[in-house]
UniProtKB/TrEMBL annotation:
<dbReference type="InterPro" id="IPR000182">
    <property type="entry name" value="GNAT_dom"/>
</dbReference>
<comment type="similarity">
    <text>Belongs to the acetyltransferase family. RimI subfamily.</text>
</comment>
<protein>
    <recommendedName>
        <fullName>[Ribosomal protein bS18]-alanine N-acetyltransferase</fullName>
        <ecNumber>2.3.1.266</ecNumber>
    </recommendedName>
</protein>
<comment type="function">
    <text>Acetylates the N-terminal alanine of ribosomal protein bS18.</text>
</comment>
<dbReference type="GO" id="GO:0005737">
    <property type="term" value="C:cytoplasm"/>
</dbReference>
<keyword id="KW-0808">Transferase</keyword>
<dbReference type="InterPro" id="IPR006464">
    <property type="entry name" value="AcTrfase_RimI/Ard1"/>
</dbReference>
<dbReference type="InterPro" id="IPR050832">
    <property type="entry name" value="Bact_Acetyltransf"/>
</dbReference>
<dbReference type="GO" id="GO:0008999">
    <property type="term" value="F:protein-N-terminal-alanine acetyltransferase activity"/>
</dbReference>
<dbReference type="InterPro" id="IPR016181">
    <property type="entry name" value="Acyl_CoA_acyltransferase"/>
</dbReference>
<dbReference type="Pfam" id="PF00583">
    <property type="entry name" value="Acetyltransf_1"/>
</dbReference>
<keyword id="KW-0012">Acyltransferase</keyword>
<keyword id="KW-0963">Cytoplasm</keyword>
<feature type="domain" description="N-acetyltransferase">
    <location>
        <begin position="1"/>
        <end position="147"/>
    </location>
</feature>
Amino acid sequence: MRLAPFRWWHIDEVLAIEADLFGAEQWSAAMFWNELANRHFYRIATDDDGLVLGYAGLAVASPDEAWVQNIAVRRDAQRRGIGRLLLEALLAEAGQRSVRAVLLEVAADNAPAQRLYAGYGFEPIGVRRGYYQPSNTDALVMQRIQD
């Protein structure tokens, strides 16, 4: 497994992962194109054959703040540390850019992801009611203050 920059030609593979994991709440190709066009920091994890196992993105909103846009790992590749490696890459990038606070939104019913983030020092700071549509699922807002 290796990490590499997310490029436009990875979008089709990423969309298949999105559809499987997020269903009606998946991101569209246009959303990923927009992220790449805005030069947000995105990485993919690939296997030895170059197939996408997961992806993650970070948007630096100001000199002091960045948002984890997404982290997703293909269902058959989960529980192998790929999500951790992707998160570590995002946090390292935030550190290189001297970002003080890294924030993210996670589904309130996604306990495994919340545990992952908590293990990296993220703490809940708020709730966005009905954030994920069409399921109307709440989002827990979490923040990590960088050293």
